[in-house]
Records
---
Amino acid sequence: MSTTTSEPKVFTGRSYGINFGRTLTLGVSRIKYEVRAYFRQGDSVFFTFLFPVVMLTIFSLAFSEQDFGTGGETLTAAAFYLPGMLAAGLLLSGLQNMAIDIAMERSDGTLKRFAGTPLPIMSYFIGKIGGVFVTGVLQATLVILVASVAFGVELPSEPSKWLTFAWVFILGVSTSAVLGIALSALPRTGKSATAVVIPIALVLQFISGVYLGFSLLPEWLQNFASAFPLKWMAQGMREVFLPASFEVLEQSESWNLSGVAIATGLWLVLGLIATRLTFRWIRKDS
């Protein structure tokens, strides 16, 4: 009589087979972890989550005596700057925070440890992008509430405006998050991540109509900014929250929502391609 002994199963590498149920379950768990970890970091909360609120408050108070208007219609500073701050929040929570966070996880060995576990790569990305989406929703809600309650900004009443807000927000936060993952490959170390990423985000905000009226910029700078997604995200938000008379201040003298969707969607696709080509659990030169 013979007996057979089964060999113990040993995990020898990352499995690329997809079990959608398990992947989604682990991804949702990662979302919860990412949101908790985000709000435990004081610097991240201030410089990404609360930063648009702080800037909206500063501009609203600094220009409280000034009216912004065109075509005989005027707005307060808070109403004028609200769309830009909402767009900036998408960039900060998505691109800036994601790029720095992943770069630091790669540098301190967190990603290397993940590579040695059965965690599906899609679960990791679901956690990261889902965490950005949750914090983005909370941030946008806070910015809108502060503008409305503290500064008396009149919010849109038409359902179509809020529908536009929804798709611009979803497309914008998705694009920012994916570009953040791709950009995380640029810093060589976690310590250099903030020095590499923050200037990029800051320059984009200044040239995309967040802190300065886009129509006030030189034409060549407007054309340059139009090559990047933040300008289009801010333009979509302006369509939602600014009166129709302000449409003439746009580069094409229209809100051009189709252009917003095309440009932002194109950057989403480019970000996905860049992420596929550049994402590594560890750096090749490490």
---
Amino acid sequence: MTDTDPPGAAAPVRPALDQRALAAELTAGGGLWRSLEVVERIGSTNAALAARAAEDEPEGAVLVAEHQDAGRGRLDRSWTSPPRAGLTVSVLLRPDVPAARRAWLSPLAGVALAESVSEVAGVRTSLKWPNDLLAPDGTKLAGILAEAGAGAVVLGVGLNVSTRAEELPGTGTSLELVRGGPVDRGALLLGFLRAFERRYRAWVGALGDPVASGLARDYLAWCSTVGTEVAVTMPDGSTLEGVAEAVDWDGRLVVHTSSGVLELASGDVRHVRPRPTGAQGRL
């Protein structure tokens, strides 16, 4: 129970992930994923894998936390979730692609997450540039954070699965709230990691080219930002408004403003007005 639960409210039943079964199924037959570890509690899965990356651990490690004490999102925002209520997972990658193309790792993870949520939970979502998974009503289901260092990239995902309304900020929601029924976290985790591996191999095989790998096409199909009027809060606190017209080859958002066309590598995006029905984004 939380401090906001009404008197007498029953604690939610949230089963633990089965590390042994998940690891055996994920790593059988070889492939990208070498190991899968589930910990009950940790400060930050991204920070833990970044430390291992600094010790030259090869790519393919997966670290999952049932509860995270010091999780972070973009712009150093905190990311918290009740124990066993979501998926908090980080992966260690060493992509052999040009450095500028690594910005496509967050969109790649977003597409893989959207696909797996659709397949496993039956929930149609959309992606807000650069790293949010949105429910049909525009509330946030998940965030993605990619951090580079020590010749590696650690990519973390935080997805609300069974989180209840009183456990969420006003801008957030969970899969079970949207779906109106339970969702298997283990199946979601395996679905996401398998979808990610397929796309990652194609993207690395194309040397990070988002067009040749098919990533750009599929990202735009899921993206609800391109073609939308947006307000973007920049890292320095300033705000600009315009129409998001495209995502360029290096994963930057192209915004047409009153002062010209800008290519943004980062920023906090708010959708001001949805794109017209039938409008398509472009790269």
---
Amino acid sequence: MTTLVGPSGLHRESLIRTLDTSKFRVAFSADSIHDLLLKPLPKSRPLLLIMDVDFLNGSSVLAQIADLKTSRPDSHVVVLADNYQLDDVASAFRAGANAYLTKFTAYETFIKSLELVLLGQSILPTAVLPFLPPVKPSLEPEHKQTPSNHAVIPEDEERVLSMLSPREICVLACLTEGKSNKIIARKFHIADATVKVHVKTILRKIRVSNRTQAAVWAMNNGLLTTVSSHAWASDQYMMADPRDT
């Protein structure tokens, strides 16, 4: 169940309308977590809380997050802030937040981030990710990846385009749409095994550990716009090749 907390009624209403057509439609909203907990929240369903904050009253915000985690330990908290400071991000996670996003986040990235949070992932502002330990490349299947490898490392757009082949860019674009290997194979008339190889290569090159992280990485690096504005999106780059298996 999606809930929303924020001191500004106007901002809350704007966000409610933004999410109204998504699967994260807001069921309850309030000025504070204390007021939210007074509402008839179902006990049997975990809460996804989007918390619209400013850190002028940082201690109050952190106390509210901690109180929610004490009252509803199965809840997921997404902090939505005007900007970020490294200390604020660290404090929010220590209090129990699962994600820290800025209000400049694109809609598609915001929705995908909420999906990741429900899957147990931790989301940080892309600008702070370079300060984290890098994710080691791996060709192991997704289910063997360690849960701690959540970081998605942003890259310069030109470098992004140079590190991925035209085929890999097309496959990555399909991953951002949630397409399975079988659907991608049908779309481009290639073998499922060929798509699987492309996906593994993409994960290794961009240093992420699963398809969902790859999709968020692509959106954070503007790859959706890049693909749609280049001839690389043409099916000719994905036509079956005699070398494909």
